[in-house]
Specification:
This protein has nine helices and six strands. Helix 1 packs across helix 6. The protein has one domain: Glycogen Phosphorylase B (Rossmann fold, 3-Layer(aba) Sandwich). It has a six-stranded parallel sheet, with helices on both faces.
Length: about 180
């Protein structure tokens, strides 16, 4: 079995789905059995019809390597993440906030690759559990996937470390300290 590359998002232009699609041929050169598992709404996404039509030929080209899972329940997501070798968040939206998908995956032992956007890159930068790539750079994404899949143990951190890092009480205390410094 080849590596499982996950993406959890809706099929929307801002999510950078085409960045992963464009990275896939390079990944398949090294891992011909690699596959993408896409969790999230992919049909009838409001306002994204033209985007879906534009990507349709790419999905068709990779139909043997790309699986749409649809919208998964929280329990199904908890089973999805640990079955991945890596999760990718190739977002193109500069206003996208903190990458919760990455933290959920990391809690399940799955490294992440994220776009170099302020909120999106934070979980990777704070944990070292993955890589950050330039926004919209499919070649960099492909190479990062190859590095993470090829040396996964280097990126995995203990669950306890991730829990401690993203603990809500710790986060609240850090915000409180920030606000005090600003006042």
């Amino acid at each position: 079995r080849g590596p499982a590359i996950g993406m959890a998002a809706r099929l929307a232009a801002e999510k950078g789905v085409e960045v992963l699609l464009d990275a896939l041929p390079r990944v398949l050169e090294i891992y011909p059995e690699a596959r993408v598992l896409f969790a999230g709404q992919y049909r009838g996404v409001l306002g994204e019809e033209a985007y879906a039509r534009r990507l349709a030929p790419l999905f068709e080209r990779h139909r043997d390597r790309w699986t749409f899972l649809g919208v998964l329940s929280p329990q199904e997501m908890a089973a999805f993440y640990p079955n991945l070798d890596v999760i990718v968040v190739p977002s193109l939206n500069s206003t996208e906030s903190f990458g919760l998908v990455q933290v959920e995956a990391m809690l399940c032992g799955t490294p992440a690759i994220a776009s170099d956007l302020p909120g999106v890159r934070q979980p990777v930068l704070q944990t070292g559990m993955g890589e950050v790539v330039p926004v919209g750079d499919s070649r960099a994404l492909a190479e990062a996937i190859l590095r993470v899949v090829g040396n996964r143990a280097r990126y995995v951190r203990p669950r306890e470390e991730i829990v401690a890092r993203f603990n809500s009480e710790r986060t609240a205390a850090e915000y409180e300290a920030l606000f005090e410094r600003l006042l």
